[in-house]
Model the fold of this input.
Amino acid sequence: MTDREFIHGIIQRDNEVFKEVVCLYENNVIRTCYSLVHDDQDARDLAQEVFIEILNSAESFRGDAKLSSWIYRIAINKSLNYVKQQKRRQFLSRIGLRSAGSDEDHGNLPADINQLNAEEAMTEKEIRMVLHLALGKLPVNQRIAFTMCKYEKLSYQEIAEVMNVSVSSVESLIHRAKTNLRNRLEIFYRENL
Done:
């Protein structure tokens, strides 16, 4: 099916077409959300919200970009809004406007890579955690570009469409992300080995 056929089917509330769109993009949307919110359940919840948004706003799809780019953009926007809300809740909790127990504990990741030691980080899971923590410290645009390139395997052109920036900006963001990651990981391993 073409992007237009998918959109037309969604607008017509064709359940089979919508199920196909979900099957095609669900894992990618979850990974994209996870790369920004760092919690599997939150990423899955956000993915559901993304698909509800697709269902409710299919008529607004203009077709200037690919359907996949539009879906990624929705996933990124939902995830960034969620992160902002979480930061606001944490801030309100710290200043006493919300009880500390009212926020759920979203994951058991340490706040910083320096809280781990290198011996603990030798299993594959823990190495991923170290990388994940380092990714979390990147500026948002670098993190988005890097994860879409390395984990979603999108081309620079596709990333440029999703992020609404030029291809050269994507190249620069990915280069800076790699440099920042390399520096953070070198510091971590130098200090903890």
Confidence is low (pLDDT under 50) at residues 97-109. Residues 1-99 form a domain with the Rna Polymerase Sigma Factor; Chain: A fold (CATH 1.10.1740.10). The CA atoms of residues 56 and 97 lie 34 Å apart.
